[in-house]
Amino acid sequence: MQDFSPETLTGTQFTVEYDGPAVSDGLMDVTDLAPSIMALARLCHQVNTVINLDRAKVSVLVRAEPRRGSFGLDLQIVQTAIDAGQALVSNPEVAKAEHILKVVGVSGGAIFAAVKGPIEAVKTVLDMARALKGRKVRGSAAMADDRVEIELADGLKLIVTKEVWDSWLSPGVVDDVRRFLDPLRRPGFDEIRFRRRGQITERITRSDSDSVSEPDGDVLSRDDSTRLWEIRTITFDPTLQWKFFEGRGTRINAYMRDSRFVQRLIDRTETTIPGDLLKVLVRTATSLNKNRKVVVENEILEVLEVVKLRQALPLTGGPAVVRDGE
After folding, report:
1. 291 and 178 assigned to the same domain
2. Residues β-bridged to residue 148
3. Looking at the DSSP assignment, which residues form a beta bridge with residue 242?
4. Secondary structure of residue 287 in the 3-state scheme
5. How does strand 218-233 pair with strand 277-288?
6. What CATH code is carried by the domain that includes residue 14?
7. Residue 65 banded pLDDT, cuts 50, 70, 90
8. Which residues make beta-bridge pairs with 64?
9. Strands 191-196, 277-288: parallel, antiparallel or unpaired by DSSP?
């Protein structure tokens, strides 16, 4: 493996095992293995990006070990500073590799009933999939201590850390969770296990794989493009969409997934109001829903530039939320 400088490196090892009749001889079809492991690596990368922003990056390295009755891989998550002169080990602003694995769910963290009422508390991204059980999210509200309350369409409420919620909303994370669990949807696979230091820290069973709902329809295309949109309405609820005008009055809705831009608005280091223009990197997904109607969904991956056309009023008492009809 590559030799990294200890001043700019944190890392930790874990094992992922696939178990069931399909792998009892220690062999696994690469068409099942590769998409699952690549999705896990992307999941670690996205969680690190959400938590550490541009302060550190991670890589997931692999070494295969034969195991009787299952197929296992020894993995190492390696974290390096983006700034070559930055020391990660002594930097309190950087969440270390160990913490990244905890947020993903590699180190365990089953759903716990630590709150009263019809509420479940969720600790990890993988637990988020279990908790949702394919249900739609109706809304969310920030709480104290960096927690978020999530309300589901059936009335159940979830309490989740902000790190887990922001990671779950990050582009591609839900798809990567689904792809990581895909082997469990195939005959001959019973469970996926994580181990740390020889001890099983998490088990994911076939029933858990059904918790991540499939897309509502067939995805026809996904395209990334740079657009210039005029803001109509703003929301700080990530389950709701920002509203824009494009060109001569064409109405566009989009989910804001640039958490750094949103944080700047919350911190008041940047301001924007309806009427301003946003130059944005947008991912547009076109799909056929269950009724075979075309559905278009936009996600803003990054705000590239804010073009101010009006004088912004000073914010008082917190970030302004502009809603329809106001």
Report:
1. no
2. 142, 160
3. 254
4. strand
5. antiparallel
6. 3.30.70
7. low
8. 73
9. unpaired
Q: Are 97 and 78 in contact (CB under 8 A)?
A: yes
**Quick check: is 143 in a domain?**
no
What is the side-by-side order of every strand in the sheet holding 199-205? 56-67, 70-81, 9-19, 191-196, 199-205
Distance CA 20, CA 32 (A): 13
Cβ proximity of 227 and 250 under 8 Å: no
- Per the listing, tokens 């062999």 go with 27
Q: Output the CA–CA distances (angstroms, integers) from residue 226 to 174, 221, 264, in the order listed.
A: 23, 16, 21
Mean pLDDT on 16-28: 87
Question: Nearest 5°: CA angle at 258, between 288 and 309?
Answer: 100
Evaluated on CA atoms 122, 125, 126, 132, the torsion sign reads: positive
Contact 209, 185 (CB under 8 A): yes
Per the CB < 8 A criterion, the answer to whether 249 and 196 are in contact is: no
Number of compact structural domains in the chain: 2
State pLDDT tens for residues 230-263.
Answer: 999 998 887 789 999 998 889 999 998 887 888 8
